[in-house]
Amino acid sequence: MKPIVSKDSIVYFNQECYSALNAYLEKVNHSKICILVDSNTHENCLPYFMSKIEKEYDIEIIEIEAGEIHKNIETCSGIWSALAELGFDRKGLMINLGGGVVTDLGGFIACTYKRGINYINVPTSLLAMVDASVGGKTGVDLGNLKNMVGVISESEMVLVDTEFLGTLPVEQMCSGFAEMLKHGLIQDREYWEKLSDLSKLELEDLDQMIYDSVIIKNNIVFEDPTEQNIRKYLNFGHTLGHAIESFYLTHPEKPTLLHGEAIAIGMIMEAYISSKLLSVTPNELQQISDVILATFPKVDINPVDYQQISQLLIHDKKNEKGNILFVLLTTIGDAKYNCKVPDELILQAFEYYSSL
Predict the structure, then answer these.
(1) Where does the 3-dehydroquinate synthase C-terminal domain lie (predicted)?
(2) What is the pTM of this model?
């Protein structure tokens, strides 16, 4: 597959990843290399990745605990300290080998350690391949508030090797699929239609689907790298989805929701709002709901929690001047940003989802 070039980075695919990586490592004389892994990727992905590095380098491995709960400033502080103790200078390189937590957090650490060192993302989850590792967004959570601290700064390269997907449980694959569905909904009706009927897709189609998804995101990010306008489209489903995800993260008596599972709920609810405020038809709303629920079983959200979840919307990063702003659909394949939504319609969206 042909590499995808963004403003400051390049996305390579499968075996071309390692040709590009080895050429880069030989060309750029890094003083040290650190590979950031979590407890899962250390065991399941690191040996394979290390086998692809052709020459001997001074490489350190830093491991963090797996899971969104560890994507915080405390984890960053520990890694910053470890880098300092290991003698990392500004010519060091960080390679982030993992899912969205590792690529988000590792990118943020690299961008801030000594005011910035080079980093490479090697996403190992479907979510990270199609979304988290592409586009230069880095960051960590602030308490239960998602991605509140971070910077936008692209990696040297992104290496998408679908061999890593063989290590993932089914629910993690589904989590990434939510972002692929989102890309179709906001930008490409034909792509959405292909994803809508998984029964017609073969396993070998997955590489092309991932490639197409990265193309959609990259085209948007290339035109608007700092999210001043159309990059906001990529937040469809995330205003309510992040609020739901944050709420469930801080209530241990409730089931843990993966990012994609929460975004799936958010997309259904925001599609409902789109049908009330914009031009999404009842048939389109039904199709969106049916396709998403075919992959993501419905979550039982207690009506007494609607208000608490809604209150988390005030922290959404798209908000301006105290206004909660949504990305909504005008139709499948086209979106509109900076949409104001009445409070009562948000509660109706919860009721719509619960009624399905």
Answers:
(1) 176-319
(2) 0.93
Instruction: Look up the domain containing 227 and give its range.
Output: 171-355
- Claim to verify: residue 159 and residue 175 sit in the same structural domain: no
Average pLDDT over residues 290-295: 95
Instruction: Write the CA distances from 188 to 182, 232, 274, 329, 333, integer angstroms.
Output: 10, 16, 17, 12, 4
Does 137 have pLDDT greater than 90? yes
Nearest to 6 by CA among 121, 100, 114, 112: 121
The answer on 337 and 189 residing in a single domain is: yes
Q: What is the pLDDT of residues 11-32, one digit of tens each?
A: 999 989 999 999 999 999 999 9
Report in angstroms the alpha-carbon separations of 54 from 26, 29, 37, 196, 227.
10, 15, 20, 41, 38
What is the domain-level CATH number for residue 92? 3.40.50.1970
Q: What integer pLDDT is reported at residue 252 of this predicted model? A: 85
Q: Cα 202 to chain center, whole Å? A: 24
The torsion angle over the Cα atoms of residues 40, 41, 43 and 44, rounded to 10 degrees, is 100
3-state SS assignment for residue 160:
strand
User: Rounded CA gap, 279 and 195, in Å?
Assistant: 22
Express each pLDDT in 172-216 by its tens digit.
888 999 999 999 999 999 999 999 876 666 667 899 999 999 999
Assess contact for 172 and 184: CB atoms under 8 A.
Answer: no
Residue 313 has pLDDT above 70, yes or no: yes
